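Run: sequence + norvaline -> complex structure.
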Amino acid sequence: MQCKHLRTIADLTREDIEEIFETTTALKRQDVTTALDIARGKTLGLVFGKPSMRTRVSFEVAMTQLGGHSTYMSQSDIGLGKREAIKDIARVLSRYVDVLAVRTFGQEIVDELAANATIPVINALTDYAHPCQALADMQTIREKFGTDTTKLKIAFIGDSNNVARSLAMVCCMCKTPMVVASPEGYAFSENFLHRLQAYAGEDAQFFSQTHDPQAAAKDADVIYTDIWASMGQESEAEERREIFRPYQVNADLLALAREHVIVMHCLPAHRGEEITDDVMDGPHSVVYDQAENRLHVQKAILKILLENGRG
Ligand code: CP
Ligand code: NVA
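>> structure
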């Protein structure tokens, strides 16, 4: 992998993505104790400005399983951008830890840390992107349907948010058709659509958006949803609950999809809002395999970035 950071999926080439999937699959097959040399003596710094369960724990366990350590710093504890300049934090942390994973609000914070760090910086979720999630999602889709995903239909039903954006980038790079169904006013910007087109290649058409959840779900192989109000949008939650109600992933919507459809959710889920209990707990749901893959994909990302650093 050529890139030094994982700020967004745009840091990766198609070949980098393939390397991540191959490394993930190999690490998954391997006895965990045989990977202990990969990060021996290395430390992952975790700087988090928003709550997390999956991302924090899977990164910490990933470092343990690779033979290294991790240290958690809340964004407010280190006063990111408040107590001292972001570039000073990046330069000092680069002297202590070997790789940094950052969860925060603005993408520009991750970009500024990366621009000033001498170690790899990984985006552990911003308002704009969640690249580790999207890579784990595509890993899960490949495990369920095989590595040729070009004939699948991925339907994302809900808010065109960080999770949808990163998955759309991965889908375009992997030539996998994806449609996002969201209410008016909650679709991707024209600017982002142009960027997606660039990832897909000039004449290719892998991405579309609609306001019609039923049309999106029809004949889908994958139905994906996420919460309607992301972290930082709590004050809009009530309003969004009304606006997004027709976009709930429930048994009626699922009935429109292919028989073998898998249901995905990055979690945490608001059961009874964007997804019903029967669908979440039903036979099509792969949400826990998907959550598990966060660990395996992040082990692969850490391995590759730490090895790059050694070079
Ligand atoms: N999916 C995900 O990133 O979960 P957490 O917010 O719990 O880390
Ligand atoms: N879109 C959600 C994802 C949580 C993992 C959020 O940003 O809160």
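>> summary
Residues 125, 161-163, 226-227, 230-231, 266 surround norvaline (ligand 2) (CB under 6 Å). Residues 17 and 135 are 8 Å apart (CA to CA).
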